[in-house]
Amino acid sequence: MDVLIALGTSVAYIYSVVVVFAPQFLPVGIDERGVYFEVSAVVIAFVLMGKYMEEIIKQRSSAAVRCRPKGVGRSCAWARPAVPARAAVHSTPVFTGGNRRS
Known about the structure:
Layout: H1 2-21, H2 37-67, E1 75-80, E2 83-88, E3 94-96, E4 99-101
Antiparallel strand pairs: 1-2, 3-4
């Protein structure tokens, strides 16, 4: 995916440079020429922002998983309609495929 994005944005940037500095080499008319400097910059910015957000989410979720075995949350709470309950984690019922296991 990164190779495709790099290739696409590079081609857009190089085409824009050719349009600005050497337009006589292009077979299209002057009205049909466009520059794509901002498009390539915005695509790269979005990709970098997405990677940054993904890394932050990974760090936060792994930190939450690391806290769990240390004894944090030895019990859990759930609320059924009008019957709140609290139980130790090892005795919490597990529902799998419609079957109830304890």
